[in-house]
Structures are given as C-alpha cells and as structure tokens.
Specification:
The structure is a single chain. By secondary structure, this protein is mainly α. Helices cover 77% and strands 0% of the residues. The protein has helices at 4-26, 34-37, 43-64, 70-94. It is globular and about 40 Å long.
Length: 96
Amino acid sequence: MPSHTNAYTLSAHAIVVAFFVMVLIYIDHETKGVADVFQLRHLPAFAVYFVPTYLLTIALHALGKNKLSRTNSFLLACCVGIPLAFVLVIAILIWK
C-alpha cells in the first residue's frame, strides 16, 4: 500500500495530466465550447491520451526524485512527460 505522500503525488499527477488532456481535447477543431469537452464521444480520446501520459509522467517522476527534490521532480516530469507523451501518442496514431 502506498504511503500518503505517494498517494498525493499520484493524485496530483492524475489531476495535472487530466487537465492537460482536457485542454488538448478542447483545442480540437470539432470542439466548439468547454461543455463539449465533457461529452461521452470524447471519452475514448481522453483514455487514449490519459493512460500513456500518466504512466510516462509517473515514470519520469520516479526517475527524477532520486536526484532532484520532490517538487522539482514533479515539475520536470510534467513539463517533459506531458508534451512527450502527446507527441508519441499522435505519432503512433498517425503511423500506419
């Protein structure tokens, strides 16, 4: 069972990643307003982007927390992991 600080870190990662995935869905050309982000038709896209992005940010945080402080590792994992995961997911979806 994870400790309280690990649970808070995992929750913080989930919230930050979910926010940025929603922003990505919002800037899609088919989305007309903020309410469109929360429609069920965007749920598969949310899952496709959220899962790898969340896992990558958690992995980067785990790698960085040995050398950096917890806060710096969290920020670095989010700043590097979120754009990297988005690019990787888009590249995988485009590649045929």
